[in-house]
Amino acid sequence: MFEKLVAIEPVSLIPSAEEELHRYAKQVVLYRDVPASDDEMVRRIGDADAVLLSYTSRMGKEVIAQCPNIRYIGMCCSLYSEESANVDIAYARTRGIQVLGIRDYGDRGVVEYVLHELTGLLHGFGMSMLRDEPVEITGLKVGIVGLGVSGRMIADALQFMGAEISYFARSAKPDAEAAGMTFKPLPQLLADSEVVFTCLNKNVLLLGENEFAQLGVGKVLFNTSIGPGFDSAALEKWLNLPGTRFFCDTRAAAGPVAENFFARENVRCANVSAGRTKQAFVLLSKKVLDNLRTALGE
């Protein structure tokens, strides 16, 4: 059992999970707002030996070094790699601190968002149609950039609806090939696809000016990643081409864009995270508690 567990900011646990935290620490402190500075983060942590945080704060070396009691840091958000994490995991390791994160808890909501927006675009439901007349997903040439869990779920859903799926990943995926999906080099995928989805880990940027030139006119780009999977200036330039469309669920997914970017007629942003659903919070809570038990050796 930990001596003191502090959630330095809102971490999206359901009420029953918040109550269960008391099984794993003698004292539990939950903050309901995001710390405004590193100094405030250090103050909140104090003498705690376990810390929880979400994606809204970064716990770097400067913070960790001032909190000598920390034994465990629980990330209540996606952890794909050390490089993309909002915790300095490498430094934490030198201090003997265990860092655990979660992943794959909000993917179903993302797939539903994609189906909703893509169907609206193809049929003209609540927005201008992509073509001169309504078209189905059947036969649509779809390119998936990044075939991780969410990318594969999007690919499976659209393939079920009749789309022709090609994908780009670090290497060809035998299970995807067996399912009838085709691996293509990125330039070919961009040139061949009518609709492209970037489903990348945080801080992975694959599309620059050259790639947007290969994507070309009359194309649609969805970004379902946490952050931009592209150079934002190159995205804005591409959107000046005729017939181009860009979709994202949150503003963060567009990256550092011009002030009037979201007022463009060919940009559609829901401004709400598609993966943050009731079911996702239940799954997130379960995984956070599982990680606490792992950290305690239970």
Automatic annotation (TrEMBL):
GO molecular function per UniProt: NAD binding; oxidoreductase activity, acting on the CH-OH group of donors, NAD or NADP as acceptor
Keyword Oxidoreductase applies: yes
Domain D-isomer specific 2-hydroxyacid dehydrogenase NAD-binding: 134-240
InterPro entries, A to Z: D-iso_2-hydroxyacid_DH_PdxB, D-isomer_2_OHA_DH_cat_dom, D-isomer_DH_NAD-bd, NAD(P)-bd_dom_sf
Coiled-coil region: none
Database matches in Gene3D superfamilies: NAD(P)-binding Rossmann-like Domain
Sorted UniProt keywords: NAD, Oxidoreductase
Domain D-isomer specific 2-hydroxyacid dehydrogenase catalytic: 17-296
PANTHER family: D-ISOMER SPECIFIC 2-HYDROXYACID DEHYDROGENASE CATALYTIC DOMAIN-CONTAINING PROTEIN-RELATED, D-ISOMER SPECIFIC 2-HYDROXYACID DEHYDROGENASE FAMILY PROTEIN (AFU_ORTHOLOGUE AFUA_1G13630)
Family, as annotated: Belongs to the D-isomer specific 2-hydroxyacid dehydrogenase family.
Name the UniProt record assigns to this protein: Dihydrofolate reductase
Species the sequence originates in: Faecalibacterium prausnitzii
